[in-house]
């Protein structure tokens, strides 16, 4: 356990902790997204687009909590600021959902890639976009009053 604390301290000194935490929790959210996607298709026999929407929603609930608390470590000074941040998060994630849906459609229907390959490629594109949205547009520190 001591090694993990030392590693975390070293990453913080090198200004890498935020990125490493984002990748770690992003991978967990991506894994949740993919697992839920295939469960929706395999167990509930949903169309891949419906499975994409459901997996997107549940993965983003997880992402908001982890990004706010452990990645960007932002505190909201009041409820209005919290809900503004949450709304901004969801709006940018909706934009990313558009990227997700369009990518799945193009990769599946136009390029005829398999669902698994298309989903992995799509998640990489969405992950990159979401990092920039989160870092620069969503999880900014609130000004101290």
From TrEMBL:
What keywords is this UniProt entry annotated with?
Membrane, Transmembrane, Transmembrane helix
Compartments annotated for it: namely: Membrane
| Short name of any one Pfam family annotated for the protein | GtrA_DPMS_TM
What membrane topology does this protein have?
Answer: Multi-pass membrane protein
Q: Where does the chain cross the membrane?
A: 20-39, 45-65, 86-108, 120-139
Q: Which GO terms describe its biological process?
A: polysaccharide biosynthetic process
Question: Boundaries of each GtrA/DPMS transmembrane domain copy?
Answer: 22-139
Cellular component terms, GO, for this chain's entry?
Answer: plasma membrane
Q: Into which family does the record put it?
A: Belongs to the GtrA family.
The protein's name: Teichoic acid glycosylation protein
Please name the taxonomic classification of the source: Bacteria, Bacillati, Bacillota, Bacilli, Lactobacillales
């Amino acid at each position: 356990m001591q090694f993990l604390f030392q590693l975390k301290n070293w990453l913080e000194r090198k200004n890498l902790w935020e990125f490493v935490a984002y990748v770690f929790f992003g991978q967990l959210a991506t894994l949740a997204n993919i697992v839920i996607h295939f469960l929706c298709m395999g167990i509930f026999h949903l169309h891949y687009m419906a499975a994409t929407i459901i997996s997107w929603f549940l993965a983003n609930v997880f992402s908001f909590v982890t990004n706010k608390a452990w990645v960007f470590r932002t505190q909201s000074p009041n409820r209005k600021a919290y809900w503004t941040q949450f709304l901004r998060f969801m709006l940018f994630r909706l934009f990313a959902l558009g990227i997700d849906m369009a990518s799945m459609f193009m990769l599946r229907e136009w390029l005829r890639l398999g669902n698994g390959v298309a989903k992995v490629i799509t998640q990489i594109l969405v992950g990159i976009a979401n990092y920039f949205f989160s870092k620069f547009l969503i999880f900014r520190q609130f000004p101290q009053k």
